[in-house]
Amino acid sequence: ETTTTTTTSMVFYFTVETGTTEAEPLRVYMGKDKYENEELIAHGWPEDVWFHVDDLSSAHVYLRLPRGPLRAKFRETGTLDHLPGDALKACCALVKANSIEGCKKHEVDVVYTPWENLRKEASMAVGQIGFKDPKQVVKVRGVVRERDLVNRANKTKTEAFPDLYAERQQRDADVRARQKARAREARKQAALEEERRRREKEERSYDRLFERAAGSDDAPPPPKATVDESAAVEAEEDFM
Known about the structure:
By secondary structure, the chain is an alpha+beta fold. It is about 40% helix and about 20% strand.
């Protein structure tokens, strides 16, 4: 018997502009409190990047990178310096603004790391996390108050109660479907390439046969196509 898990939590969603028409706005989200943070930690996506004020209590803010160049660059370099416009600055400012202590300070340091690098153990307090690999944690120093960026983000703020478990399951199903489609296409292309090589080999064999026949007066004429061979030629024309 299969057990279905339902995990609904209050989540705040924001849109961060990239300042360019070449890149769509980025999706940022965070939980209402530390209990929601537990659910976000448990059901995050590999596309997510986790933000937090360093050494202070703050909201857990996640940036969901879209598949494509932005995420590929992050996986390659481990940093978000390549984000267009003020996207990175806006994410850091949003974290600072949602820290009870951090919002009062002139500047704070903000850390970020891939969601996959978060480590949660049973002995940890609610909302507390560690890191699997500290080397994958990037620190942004001297983050100051950015009222304009925060205000712009807050204007896009929405509240929702998503089933985080179901969303992650659907995401994984979509990924598996794309992987299967790519595998099918790869097998198709491999079969076509194999067929192309086979035909080239046959053509070379016929060419050598005809060359030998042309060099001999007593050689029989080239064989005429049989019914089966004619059918093969028609099939080849259909293929091409």
